[in-house]
Specification:
The chain is 24% helix and 35% strand. It is of the alpha+beta class. A six-stranded mixed β-sheet has the order 6-7-8-3-9-10, sandwiched between helices. A five-stranded antiparallel β-sheet has the order 13-12-11-14-20.
Amino acid sequence: MSSLAIRNLRKSYGSVEVLKDINLEAESGEFVALVGPSGCGKSTLLSIIAGLESVSSGEVAIEDKVVNNEAPKDRDIAMVFQSYALYPTMTVRQNMTFGMECRNIDKGTQAATVARVAALLQIEPLLDRKPGQLSGGQRQRVAMGRALVRDPKLFLFDEPLSNLDAKLRVEMRSEIKKLHQNVGRTTVYVTHDQVEAMTLATRIAVMHQGVLQQFATPKEIYEQPANIFVAGFMGSPNMNFFAAKYVNSAEGGGIVLDGGDGSLLPLPGQRQPNLRDGQQVIFGVRPEHFSPAHVARATRKGNPSVIVPVSIDMDEPTGSETILMCSIAGQEATIVCEPDEAPTTGTAIDFEIDMSKVSLFDPTSEARL
């Protein structure tokens, strides 16, 4: 039984269609991330699940019950907002018990529930403070605590970490993951941060311009992106895209980069696409799937690889890694390598590409081949 099912869902504001035929299901206990750039429709979709927005057509079902016409209070969901949405004149304890009081839950149950959730979130010392006396991370814990005391069928998070600084975001990301593991409730989490989506979710729904581009595990989305948008959005730095053509040879299929010296980059036999000789393609390689030829990681792992000459235009040391801005066959590229392996700016060096990790896309439809 699916905890959440969205079927053929569309949402329009007048003549503007913001969600286009969305279909996805979340199994019981799953953590689903809705990810995409600003304006892609992810927050609107979350509001529809919560009952804060109506649908233009299609269905939203929670535990196999269609809830299109049910009020938010009757859907048995709990939502954590980006802005925390805490009552400023109430203490933390009062913020957490307010919903239970509205549902006429007895005082003893309220006290026991607050104690259990406060211990889980490690906010016991904060219970008698007001929101104005808390840090951003503490307020976010309280907002999560207010949701947890509900014990709902669904948890909905709307970009809950976007107001926090970078260090605190990493810490809170770990807290949310631990929380999901401990509680085990189905969770739908909206974010524009692909790192949050990759680290938290069991499955990711990538959205763009109101269209669901791909719904799969983080590993599938990263290694087998459905199209150029998904490949470019998921991953930092972005995947490299090279204009190229597919060539049949006696040894098998391969890629020739536009603007290069005509060298054939052989594709692994088991991954040869059903393409015609000379067909234009987009050749996608992630920055971390390059390594200096003298290091040859792919070769050491037994993976098929090719060597390409690279001109280094600029380097950006980040401490744990060095990002290289460079050109390959006259096309711009980004490479990530170990700091002690990084060549200097202005040099030319051979790099190995791990061909077991590459992707091919259609230049017209931008779909994966």
